[in-house]
Amino acid sequence: MPNGCYRNLMYQKSRRGGLDKAALERRRLRLQQEQERVRLSPKSSHGQNDLSAASEDSQPPSTGSSPVNNKSLPDSLANSTSIDATHVAEMPFVDTSPTFQINADRLLELFYENCWPAMPIVLPYHHLQQRRMNENNGLEGLLLVLKYIGSIYAPWTPSEPYLTAAIHALDSPSLTHTPFAVQALMLLGITQYHMNMKQEGQKRHDLAVSIAIALRMNEKEFAHGYGESNPVLEESWRRTYYMLYVTDQNFAIMSNSLVYTLATISNYVDLPCDDEYYEAGQIPSVVSWQDYEDREFAEVEIVFSSIVYLYDMARIVSNVITAYLQTGNLGEAMSDPFDTKLAVWTSLLPACKRDSLRQHGRGLDEVMFTAHMIGLIMTVTLHRPFSSLTLNPEELATVAFLSPTPCVAPPRQGWAAHTARVLKALEMQTKLLAIPCTVERHNVFTMCMSAQLAAAEISACTNLLEDHALSIARDRVRLSIGFLNAMGSFWTLGKLMAKEVRAIARKYLSNSQKTVTMDLGPADEIDFPRDELIWPVDPSAQIDIYSGLMLPIDWDPAKFAIGHTSSTSSGL
User: Fold this and answer.
1) Per-domain boundaries in the chain
2) CA 407 – CA 403 distance, rounded (Å)
3) Helix (H) or strand (E) holding 322
4) DSSP string of 244-272, one letter each residue
5) Residue 62 has pLDDT above 90, yes or no
6) What is the pLDDT of residues 482-493, one digit of tens each?
7) How much is the pLDDT for 258?
8) Which of 112, 310, 464, 470 is the right S-S partner for 116, CB 3.0 to 4.6 Å?
9) What sign for the dihedral angle of Cα 385, 538, 270, 369?
10) What is the pLDDT of residues 242-257, one digit of tens each?
11) Closest by alpha carbon to 316, among 382, 235, 240?
């Protein structure tokens, strides 16, 4: 549960005992509803529907208290003027169980704590609160979406009323097409998609893209024209368009369509600044994309925003997609340019961006975490078809995530090099997931990436690795499943991905003939020349790219043709 959810709670010992957490939550919700029915007697029959209550909740906080007059909503959705996240009241006429009253601002805080770090496009929290105090602030639909997302991280309150209110506001024919509407639709689309409402999520994302194009958000002058002479608001519009492009690409890749609207739209937007300046409201002078393109010629190293590096990674992916759509198949010649561009991207990263951890203990840079994950999944996608890590039939039958299955031209040689690149990418993913952090703050798109990488790791366990190397790979599979389980506690699609990855692992790793041994001594390994491994590694990071590459000395890569199943796995 997110930190701070139970602040100021006063628990009393249960008189019934023996109830687990889920049963306690069901009992609390039932008691809240009973209390509401008792309190709302015929003397005060001025109830309101869910939508009006949630709409009132989106208004700026008032200085006076407002009673709850909603028969269909529990007290957990009532407005509260208390600054505390939760308030506990006794119910002497029913039980001593606590009743929760949720301050609407607490749901906003949950959004900023868990989702904003990976998608920092909305105004920083204190700037958003200041704008809410203004009339005609244009935030009505956006606030409903933010509270809906925050409610996903609040197990003490149902999310459905907030989702209903957000959909009602954004599906209205009178919806004003503004940049705030683009933000609201974009975030709602991402959320619905990963709550396994894929069609609805895709629909709202497409509408966000259409409005952005109609408003010409890709133009340089847009931020100033809609910025109301507010540098922070102008920065928000720049960030919105760059993240919209990345999101549009991710939606296309997750659906295996590889066609997305913004791929063909020219981008003239100035580059956004880093988060620390954005949050502080101290926006520096803007720079252009050409400044970024010429960064290697600068006398002094320039540190660009994490969003810029993420966008550049998306452009590298776009080059691969364009080449694939032109040729219709994935050949080895396509992976070489990607490896080169990825090497350039990595080598030109400033020291503070090469590691996803921020300097001076300021936590994880979630945007850079996403950028590194995209680089890893693209490496595996391009090299795995030519490696010994074949696709399992169960992997091709998944629903929650789709493994990339491009048409490939089988190579005549080079299996070892492709396999080494895939194994190295899997190791780098392990290092990212092993970073101590609050897992649920990772970008939701990384769930699909982790599921695909876990499937590749399972293939390595099945077809290639032995002894100590197999033990390492099994731990990596467990780590990926653990990450998906953690994300799945909030996101429906993450839970389904974890279930499907577990099913694949159970099929090929449970009761396997490749028994994991307790011998921690190094096994024989194949020596891959380092010049074949293009991705530069920062020496200060002390990353050993050969960790776990324990291959049997008699391993013959030539026998692992695409679609081949090893003799050791045929009986599984």
Assistant:
1) 21-104, 107-372, 407-559
2) 13
3) helix 306-327
4) HHHHHHHHHHHTT----GGGGS---PPBP
5) no
6) 999 999 999 999
7) 86
8) 112
9) positive
10) 999 999 999 999 988 8
11) 382
